[in-house]
Amino acid sequence: MRRRGFLAGTGITLATVGSGCLGDTPPEVSATVEIESVTANDDPEDKATVTVNDDHATVEGAFRADIDCVTLETAAFASNEGDVIVELTTETTGDDCDGPATVAYTGEITANFTINDLVLNHVHEENDRKTVFSYERGD
Fold first, then answer.
1. pLDDT one-digit tens code per residue, 44-58
2. pTM
3. Are strands 101-111 and 70-78 parallel, antiparallel or unpaired?
4. What is the pLDDT of residues 54-93, one digit of tens each?
5. Are residues 103 and 71 in contact, defined by beta-carbon separation less than 8 angstroms?
6. Which of 33, 15, 45, 27 is nearest to 87 (CA)?
7. Across all residues in the chain, what is the average pLDDT?
């Protein structure tokens, strides 16, 4: 079962333009994820591994879902300082569901700038965010 979630970042600015400005090009970032499998189990966990290479990152993870009939939605945000935040949420796709479940996924993050900091969050409810990966580029 493969499903695809996609939302292109529209250059939503999280910080004001300052000395870290990228010039005349507004920051843009996009994130795509593809569900590899959805497995009902009693003890799902949130986890992810991300590899960052300049303006591109690859993602592999597992999302703890309440039920097994879901799809993943993505949102990606960028700042003028090269910061990226990606958030994954679930959307229910049916009513004959079991749970809880682990949603295994892979994906990519691309930007029109060098990624300095990256945070990947799993959002279970509006105020329930779990940071599953954090990256800070060394000097």
1. 999 999 999 999 999
2. 0.80
3. unpaired
4. 999 999 999 999 999 999 999 999 999 999 999 999 999 9
5. no
6. 33
7. 84
User: How many Å separate Cα 28 from the centre of its chain?
Assistant: 15
Length of the chain: 139
What gap in Å lies between CA 80 and CA 62, rounded to an integer? 30
Q: How far apart are CA 98 and CA 70, in angstroms?
A: 11
Asked if 1 contacts 37 with a C-beta cutoff of 8 angstroms, the reply is yes
Dihedral sign for Cα atoms in the order 74, 79, 82, 85: negative
What region, left, alpha or beta, does residue 118 occupy, with left being phi > 0 and alpha being psi -120 to 50 degrees?
beta
> How far apart, in whole angstroms, are the C-alpha atoms of residue 63 and residue 47?
7
Residue pLDDT, tens place only, 98-114: 889 999 999 999 999 99
Nearest to 68 by CA among 137, 3, 134: 3
82 CB neighbour count, 10 Å cutoff: 19
Q: Give Rg (Cα) of the chain.
A: 16
